[in-house]
Amino acid sequence: MQVGILGLKYAGKTTLFNVTTGAGLPVGQGGVDPHRAMGLVPDPRVDLLSDLYKPKRTVHVQIEWVDVPGFEPGPEHDGAREATRFLEHARRVDALAQVVRCFDGGYGPPDPAGELATVGLELILADLQIVEKRLEKLQKEMRLKNKIEQPLEPGLFERFKTHLEGEHPLRELELNADERRTIAGYSLLTLKPMIVVLNHAEGEEPDSDAVAAANEAGAEVLSLCASVEAELSELDPADAAEFLADLGVAEPAAHRMIRAAYGALDLHSFFTVGPDECRAWTVRRGALAPTAAGAIHSDLERGFIRAEVCAYDDLVAHGDHSAAKAAGKVRLEGKGYEVKDGDIIEIRFNV
């Protein structure tokens, strides 16, 4: 799972990247290359299962965070070309998180709605370039071969072009499964789930206009002070938790970013357990048992027979797998079973 952190310069992207990953990079340096770092997804359920099973190793889910270089709008900075070049770094991520400056910080009065509109337009223009190039190739293909290899593409990309020219993101469109499969390889930016992070000054909150603009973007919305969170990340966890409580913040920004990523991507976790390994895995909500098997290994999906399933709460309540099974809380499920958050699963398969 990859999440790209993007936005205009001086919005606090790298500060938030450090808070989320612990990377400790210098901030305010600019640059043209993205920063990448892995961050563990804390899940106390994995730790408890590890305490029960005493495995050789315990594996949490990881998210790769990509700090996309910021850009400045305006012709004096050649903003459009700069943005397009930098946004290419975001094409392969699964979700986007735009950091929006809601503080002065010596950079001038903040304009959250303007930042959202500027970055949104750059995403649209970057996608429009891809769509127009593809339509040109399709027209050439039709002239040379008198046929189209992917018959859904011409109408779909014309629809995309019209929507983008109207300055609307593609995530607004309803697409069926066949259409999504057709365009899966194009990594269109405005189709990606979006998180908006309103980065405000210490002791302040984003104004109502900023919140309204973020909500209108059709995104998961977070409000935080990245500079304070950066200071807290250097403290002992207990001291940091105490300071957060004094600030009226329930959990650190890193945890909130992870929850937002899960929400934007519509993900949840299931677990595999045993003496060798206790591990968390992620699938989209609504995924069926064979898809969960495939998340573990493609052979398990290919040779799927059944899944032995126990809910996390049932296993913990009964103390171990054997007791849960004796209580009738372990069941066999077939290919049509929809995986639930917290399921503990063992795959039966034959290849």
Using the coordinates shown, work out and report the CATH topology of the largest domain.
Rossmann fold
The largest β sheet comes out as: 6 strands, mixed
- What is the beta-strand fraction? 15-25%
CATH superfamily of the largest domain: P-loop containing nucleotide triphosphate hydrolases
Average predicted local confidence, pLDDT: 90
**CATH class categorisation of the largest domain:** Alpha Beta
Distance between the termini: 28 Å
Computed Rg: 23 Å
Structural class: alpha/beta
Explain this structure to me?
The protein is α/β, with parallel strands linked by helices. It is 42% helix and 21% strand. It has 14 helices and 12 strands. It has helices spanning 13-21, 44-53, 79-87, 112-145, 153-165, 177-182, 208-216, 226-232, 237-246, 253-265, 289-296, 298-302, 312-318, 321-326, and strands spanning 2-6, 35-40, 57-59, 62-67, 95-102, 194-200, 220-224, 267-272, 277-284, 304-311, 330-333, 343-349. The strands form 3 sheets. Strands 2-4-1-5-6-7 form a 6-stranded mixed sheet, sandwiched between helices. Strands 3-9-8 form a 3-stranded mixed sheet, with helices on both faces. Strands 11-10-12 form a 3-stranded antiparallel sheet. Helix 1 packs across helix 10 (253-265), helix 3 packs across helix 4 and helix 4 runs antiparallel to helix 5 (153-165). The model has no long low-confidence stretch (mean pLDDT 90).
Please give the structural blueprint:
Elements: E1 2-6, H1 13-21, E2 35-40, H2 44-53, E3 57-59, E4 62-67, H3 79-87, E5 95-102, H4 112-145, H5 153-165, H6 177-182, E6 194-200, H7 208-216, E7 220-224, H8 226-232, H9 237-246, H10 253-265, E8 267-272, E9 277-284, H11 289-296, H12 298-302, E10 304-311, H13 312-318, H14 321-326, E11 330-333, E12 343-349
Helix pairs in contact: 1-8, 1-10, 3-4, 4-5
